Amino acid sequence: MDVAAKIQDLAVHWLGVLRRVVDRPYVMDIAMVLLVLAFAISESVHDEGHLTAVAGGFALALSLPLLWRRRRPAPVFVVIASIALLQWLTETPLASDVAVLIALHALGSYENRRRLVVGAALVAELGVVLAVVRWSPSDEKITSAILLTGTVTAALVLGVYSRTRRAYLVSVLERATTAERQRDQQAQLAVADERARISREMHDIVAHSLSVMIALSDGAAAAIRSDPDAAVTTMGQASTLGRQALGEVRRLLGDEPGPGVLAEPLDLAPQPGIAQLDDLVGRVRAAGLSIEFRVSGPEPALAPGIQLAIYRMVQEALTNVLKHAPAATRATVSLHYGSGVIDIQVENDDDPPPGGPVPEAETGRGLAGMRERAAVFGGSIEVGRRADGGWRVVSHLPVDQVETR
């Protein structure tokens, strides 16, 4: 068994070596030249008993140009056809005339210019006619012409087919490479979009919850001596808000609750929407900001996506009030369902402190996220100071671009 396995391994090795050698174009070119040369010499010796200098010279001249048939198919065909014509003029028939067929095949295989290919086919056919006229017996001229014409046509057609097949394989590989590149790009874009979505949601959830929790904690710290019961209630509200934020973050990231203190059942409630705006406003009121919530117009049937966008925009605007307008005492949240548009407006009665951060700088992540949410539904965001003081955030969302339920 060991001897048989070694023989098998040796055979596989040498077959691999032979395949690598054969796959090299220049090796095949040299082999083709030697084969044509040997065929011509053996045929000449068989017919005449010896090899003449003229026959050997023609055989060598017809064979050597085949070395360049891949790189220069048109010049090689012209050279070989010219030598074949000179051979015809000197009345020196040789089997090496097969080099004309090989050059014609190479021209069809490697030359893209149709005029050259057609011209070469006509030249080869002319050579067939001349050879039949001079060297074919009188009673076999038609048969010889048909056979030689078929041989020329076959050589040319096989060459053209080889070029077409090679071009097809190249195009298939290019399409596969392009498809793979596009797939990778689509995957990268999908990852970037998902990261942007998670970043936007995390910002809205964490920033709002922390801002309200800080305000509640400050209120509890201020009231703990004068009204301990109110302080306890306020801290309970902060704790509840923290747990809600943690649950939203878990839902967003798809995490399962682990063991321990936080191993409570994961809330599977849907994403917040318009119905949860009252709770949102209530939490901010509990943080000490007086808020008036107005809704006007008939409410259309809105898809969860647009409802989440409205909720997050109101949430971000109120968070900015708590973060950037600490002296604000009143805020107004207005939601108007008009004809073909939904208007969301959040305003407060305090400007940002001098030198402090402005709610909307173009680099701001929060309102930049609001702009992105509005743009998804073909809407817009306007941010700026009110004429009578304070700050206003207004969003317009076209209803006709909203996917309704």
UniProtKB/TrEMBL annotation:
CDD domains: HATPase_UhpB-NarQ-NarX-like. Its EC number is 2.7.13.3. Keywords: ATP-binding, Kinase, Membrane, Nucleotide-binding, Phosphoprotein, Transferase, Transmembrane, Transmembrane helix, Two-component regulatory system. Residues 194-255 form the Signal transduction histidine kinase subgroup 3 dimerisation and phosphoacceptor domain. InterPro entries: DUF7134 (IPR055558), HATPase_C_sf (IPR036890), HATPase_dom (IPR003594), Sensor_HK_TwoCompSys (IPR050482), Sig_transdc_His_kin_sub3_dim/P (IPR011712). GO terms for molecular function: kinase activity. The chain crosses the membrane at residues 25-42, 49-68, 116-136, 142-161. SUPFAM superfamilies: ATPase domain of HSP90 chaperone/DNA topoisomerase II/histidine kinase. Residues 22-166 form the DUF7134 domain. Residues 344-367 are annotated as: Disordered. Residues 307-400 form the Histidine kinase/HSP90-like ATPase domain. It is an enzyme of class 2 (transferase). It catalyses: ATP + protein L-histidine = ADP + protein N-phospho-L-histidine. This is histidine kinase.
